[in-house]
């Protein structure tokens, strides 16, 4: 007789839920995904706010302590990928000298999917006070069109 394994049952349930979301086009991120935060469940880094107006999408990424030259942004259709590296230990400090270490470091990648196509030739990015602001102009075909109704 097979022994009951509750973790196997939970994992099977999770796969079924992921499959259901995928059928509706709502992809979920992997359960054990993490940016560069070892031992912690995935919560994308950098943390982002995404909003839009008539012409653009805006992505604000909270990324303090990152050298702007280490940032790499790519846009394909409606997907923005932000990658880079956050500096590690302070000069001369050894890991065994720490009493507490809560600020993670290392390489990271964050991908966000936007609800419409982007004009990748006009994307702008600015890094100021630890915030990366990416302005992503909507492609012409993604912008709402006003259609005139003729009265006869």
Question: Which helices and strands appear, and what pairs or packs with what?
Answer:
Elements: H1 6-23, E1 47-52, E2 56-62, E3 72-76, E4 79-86, E5 106-113, E6 124-128, E7 131-137
Antiparallel strand pairs: 1-2, 2-7, 3-4, 4-5, 6-7
Report on the architecture of this protein.
The chain is mainly beta. It has two domains: 1-31; 32-140, Immunoglobulin-like (Sandwich). It has one helix at residues 6-23; strands spanning 47-52, 56-62, 72-76, 79-86, 106-113, 124-128, 131-137. Strands 1-2-7-6 form a four-stranded antiparallel sheet, with no helix packed on it. A three-stranded antiparallel sheet has the order 3-4-5, with no helix packed on it. Residues 31-42 have low confidence and may be disordered.
Extract low-pLDDT stretches.
31-42
Q: Just give the CATH class of the largest domain.
A: Mainly Beta
Average pLDDT, rounded to a whole number, is: 81
* Strand order in the largest sheet: 1-2-7-6
Q: How large is the share of residues in beta strands?
A: 25-35%
- Treating each run of at least 4 consecutive H or I residues as one helix, how many helices? 1
Overall shape: it is flat
What gyration radius follows from the Cα positions, in whole Å? Answer: 21 Å
How many domains in all?
Answer: 2
Classification by helices and strands? mainly beta
């Amino acid at each position: 007789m097979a022994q009951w394994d509750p973790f196997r049952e939970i994992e099977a349930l999770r796969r079924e839920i992921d499959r259901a979301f995928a059928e509706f086009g709502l992809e979920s991120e992997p359960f054990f995904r993490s940016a560069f935060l070892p031992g912690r469940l995935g919560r994308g880094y950098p943390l982002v706010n995404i909003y839009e107006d008539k012409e653009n999408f805006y992505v604000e990424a909270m990324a303090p302590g990152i050298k702007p030259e280490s940032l790499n942004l790519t846009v394909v259709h409606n997907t923005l990928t932000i990658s880079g590296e956050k500096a590690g230990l302070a000069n001369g400090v050894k890991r065994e000298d720490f009493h507490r270490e809560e600020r993670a470091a290392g390489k990271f990648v964050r991908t966000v999917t936007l609800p419409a196509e982007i004009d990748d030739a006009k994307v702008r990015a600015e890094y100021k006070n630890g915030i990366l602001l990416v302005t992503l102009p909507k492609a012409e075909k993604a912008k709402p069109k006003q259609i005139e109704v003729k009265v006869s």
